[in-house]
Design brief:
The protein has 392 residues and is mainly alpha-helical. The chain has three domains: 88 residues, no CATH class; 116 residues, no CATH class; 163 residues, no CATH class. Helices cover 53% and strands 4% of the residues. The protein is built from 17 helices and three strands. A three-stranded antiparallel β-sheet has the order 1-2-3. A hairpin with a 2-residue loop joins strand 1 and strand 2. Helix 13 crosses helix 16.
Length: 392
């Protein structure tokens, strides 16, 4: 469809992998060396052996907007549909498309989204939840007896609860862990009798306290922006016990889901580069990651009237304050995190101060200190996690 970024530019809404393949075939240098060295070598061989055979154009359909495109995408991936469809999606892909286009979310997708975003859910479950078999989730949570034991109800297709989020997380985390176990089969929950036996076997540890009632019912699908429990506590432990021994700016176990490809790649590099050997590279990348994350958030949330955050005229400190204010006003970030970062950023020459960030890039006399950068990341970790969760 026509792109808002230029008259002769277009946004690909279907066929992204095919377009990416064509771009890489015509220019293998687009592949990152260190991460995908073997892949780059293969594409260079393809390029060198077929340099005169690549297409210089490909047929495509241009539709006026995303809404029109969604109609055709739905037809294409909706299954055979008496011959009009071709390439079927799996159940989760269909669920996500229905949610995007019609606002309809399946029981299993609501379950998955809750577990991904609830603070009380262990990070190991968050990591694996996308591989769960959704038919088993629908079978379990479609059972009124099971839902009652878990402290949730189903109204017009929407999973809701009137007890605290942490109480709901107890039983749902247990279910997720069980369903992700290879030995678990549908026979364990196939009939009403099976499901009753399964849920009745839960120990008190996994049964919600229904006395912990909240002011008003809430939807499981609306829970978002919580930092992973195990990742946060684990990192706090590693910070206190071995911060001086850390060789990476961001510990591998700190999982942040980043939707923007380049920033996701930078995040991975910051988890890979040795901060002692490559302290200058890490410092520059760290600064770039933080500012571009703020820019991306500002643009996605339309917090500026300018065509881009970079053209808004806002400095790094102003961008940080704008993002913090937005998250605070929507109750997505607690007062402690908000106040802590605001105060730290105000100190221009402190670890989170703008002068320090600028010096990483612009001051040839300034040498970054690995220990200080690690402390800076540890101070920003919860904020960064919440920011990117809100963009997921």
């Amino acid at each position: 469809m026509p792109s808002a970024n230029g008259v002769k530019k277009f946004t690909v809404v279907e066929g992204n992998r095919r377009i990416a393949s064509l771009k890489i075939l015509s220019n293998p240098e687009l592949i990152e060396d260190k991460i995908y060295a073997n892949l780059k070598k293969k594409f260079k061989t393809l390029y060198n052996n077929n340099i005169d055979k690549f297409p210089i154009s490909v047929p495509c359909i241009v539709l006026k907007d995303e809404k029109e495109a969604e109609i055709w995408i739905g037809i294409k991936h909706g299954g055979l549909q008496s011959g009009i469809g071709t390439d079927g999606w799996d159940p989760r892909q269909k669920d996500r498309f229905e949610l995007k286009t019609k606002g309809i979310s399946s029981i299993s997708l609501q379950f998955i989204n809750f577990l991904k975003n609830a603070a009380e859910v262990p990070v190991e479950i968050k990591q694996e939840i996308d591989s769960i078999k959704t038919s088993n989730v629908d079978r379990l949570l479609g059972d009124p007896y099971v839902r009652n034991k878990l402290g949730i109800d189903l109204t017009n297709g929407i999973l809701r609860a009137n007890i605290e989020e942490g109480e709901v997380a107890k039983g749902l985390s247990k279910i997720a862990k069980d369903l992700l176990t290879p030995k678990f089969t549908v026979s364990n929950i196939y009939s009403d009798k099976n499901r009753k036996a399964y849920i009745d076997a839960f120990t008190a540890k996994f049964i919600p306290d229904t006395k912990k009632v909240v002011d008003k019912p809430w939807q499981l699908s609306t829970v978002k922006n919580a930092a992973p429990r195990a990742a946060t506590s684990q990192n706090n432990n590693s910070s206190s016990q071995s911060r001086e021994n850390r060789t990476k700016l961001i510990p591998k176990k700190v999982l942040v889901s980043i939707s923007q490809p380049r920033l996701s790649s930078i995040y991975t590099e910051l988890q890979t580069l040795d901060i002692n050997t490559h302290k200058n590279a890490v410092a520059v990348l760290f600064r770039v990651f933080i500012e571009l994350s703020l820019d991306y958030f500002i643009e996605q949330k339309k917090l500026t009237q300018a065509t881009s955050s970079q053209r808004s005229g806002l400095g790094l400190k102003d961008k940080a304050f704008q993002v913090i204010s937005n998250l605070t006003n929507r109750n997505l970030i607690d007062t402690a995190i908000s106040k802590g970062i605001r105060n730290a950023v105000k100190d221009d020459n402190g670890l989170l101060g703008t002068e320090t960030w600028h010096a990483y890039v612009h001051n040839h006399r300034f040498s970054p200190i690995p220990a200080n950068m690690i402390i800076t990341w540890d101070s920003l970790q919860d904020f960064v996690t919440i920011l990117w969760n809100d963009l997921a």
